[in-house]
Amino acid sequence: MAMLTDVSSAFRSTTGTAYTGRTRLRGINTTGTGTVTFRDGGAGGVTKVVIDTTGTHFILIPADGVLFQTDMHLTLTGVTGVTVFYG
Fold first, then answer.
1. CA–CA separation, 29 and 25 (whole Å)
2. Residue 50: which residues within 8 A CB-CB, separation 6 or more?
3. CA–CA separation, 86 vs 63, rounded Å?
4. 3-class DSSP state of 42
5. Which pLDDT does position 70 carry in this prediction?
6. Multiple choice CATH, 8-86, 2.40.50, 1.10.20, 2.60.40, 2.60.120
7. What is the rounded CA–CA span in Å between residue 13 and residue 82?
8. For residue range 15-50, what is the model confidence (pLDDT) as tens digits?
9. Chain-centre distance of CA 66, in angstroms?
């Protein structure tokens, strides 16, 4: 049976925490040229996902998404904006 959960979104244009608490990354929309690094546990936490991007892209994470146990922290390098979909 598929996992059912509500999906929310958060926008970041600077480095910081997109969500505090346990959650799963479901999708990513990026704008700009650069790198987005997703970490679990703040700026010094475990790296979960790294996205290199140019332009605007939407990425849908398959299956149950990527699990973040503590929080979802994003480090933006050169990217002008990121919308994350989580739940």
1. 12
2. 35, 36, 37, 38
3. 13
4. coil
5. 97
6. 2.60.120
7. 6
8. 999 999 999 999 999 999 999 999 999 999 999 999
9. 9
Tokens of 59: 């990425």
Rg, C-alpha atoms of the chain: 12
Identify the bridge partners of residue 80 per DSSP, sorted by sequence position: none
User: How is the chain split into domains, by residue range?
Assistant: 8-86
Strand boundaries in the chain, DSSP class E? 8-12, 16-20, 23-40, 46-53, 56-60, 66-68, 71-86
Tell me which residue of 19, 71, 22, 28 sits closest to 50, measured CA to CA: 28
pTM: 0.92
How far apart (Å, rounded) are the C-alpha atoms in residues 47 and 52?
14
